[in-house]
C-alpha cells in the first residue's frame, strides 16, 4: 500500500526578534531535535481525513484555529489531486504550539513535502516556501515571515534588508532550548513593543542596538567566537526586557542557565512566555544547563548540537 512521509523541524530566533519587525537583521536556527512528520496514504473512508494530537476527523471539519492548514490542504488538492482521491493524513509533532518554535510552519512544511512525495511531483525550495506562506499568512501575526523560511532548510538563515539568505558559518557548541510552559502571543507582543516605542522616540535606540548586536553575532559566529556570541545574547536579553517582552519566569530561567555555565542566554521569539535559548560550549555543559532549567520548572528542554547545522562535507 502506497505511503509517503514529509518531514520538517522547529526553528528558534537566535537573535533579532522584535527588531526584525523594524527591518533590522535577524539570525534564525533550524532545530532538528524538535520535529514533525506528515504521512499520507489513500483513505479507506470516502473523504480526506487528518489524524493528529490536536484534531482527528475529516478535513472539512478542522477547527477554525486550523484555518491556515485547511487553506493549505485545499490548495494542495487543487494543484496535485484534481481528481480528489481521498487521502488519510497523519501528523506527528514534537514541537509545542505557541512557543516561538515555528510549530505551525513546520506542520505546514511536513504536509507539503508529504503531498508532493505522495503524488510524485518534484518540489522546489521556492514552491515549498510559497506554500508554507499560504498557511503562515492565515495562522499568524508573524510580520517578518521568518518561520516559513527556516523550517524548510537544515542550516541557519540570515534575515537582512527584508530578504532571506543562507547563513553557513562553521558552527560549534550546543544550544539549549527551554520551554517556560506558557504560550507567547506574537500579535500582543509586537503591538505592545510598537506602543512602547511610539511613546518616546528615544526608545528606538533599543531597536538599533539589537540590530548592532545581531551584526556583531553574525561576525562572532563566523569567527567561531562562542564567548563573544554568548555575551551578545545576554545583552540582547537586557534590551528585550527593556522593551517589555520578558517575564519573571523568562528572567529566572535565563539566570539559572547562566549560573549553570551557559555562555549567554535570552528569550527567543516574541516573548511574554514561549522559550529561552542558552548557548553552551560543549555537550557536558549543555546537559548541566538543561538539567538546571528542568529543576527550575522548565516544561521541556532540547539540546541541539550546532555542529549538526553545518553543511555536509
Ligand atoms: C516572532 O516569532 C518574532 C517577531 O520578531 C515577529 C516577527 O519577526 O515577525 C517578534
In short:
This protein has 313 residues and is an alpha+beta fold. Helices cover 40% and strands 24% of the residues. Strands 1, 2, 3, 4, 5, 6 and 7 form a 7-stranded mixed beta sheet that branches. Strands 9-10-8-11 form a 4-stranded antiparallel beta sheet.
The small molecules bound here are: (R)-mevalonate
Helical fraction equals 25-40%
Element pattern in H and E: EEEEHEHHHEEEHHHHEEHE
According to CATH, the fold-level topology of the largest domain is Ribosomal Protein S5, domain 2
Low-confidence stretches are none
Radius of gyration based on Cα positions:
20 Å
Can you offer a commentary on this structure?
- It is a single chain.
- With 313 residues, this protein is α+β, with helices and mostly antiparallel strands.
- It folds into two domains: 3-164, Ribosomal Protein S5, domain 2; 169-309, Alpha-Beta Plaits.
- It is 40% helix and 24% strand.
- The strands form two sheets. Strands 1, 2, 3, 4, 5, 6 and 7 form a seven-stranded mixed beta sheet that branches.
- It starts with a strand and ends in an 8-residue tail after the last strand.
- The relative contact order is 0.17.
- The chain binds (R)-mevalonate (MEV).
- (R)-mevalonate is lined by residues 13, 17-18, 20-21, 100, 142-144, 146, 186, 189-190, 269-270.
Features:
single chain; Ribosomal Protein S5, domain 2; alpha+beta; 313 residues; 7-stranded mixed sheet; 2 domains; binds (R)-mevalonate
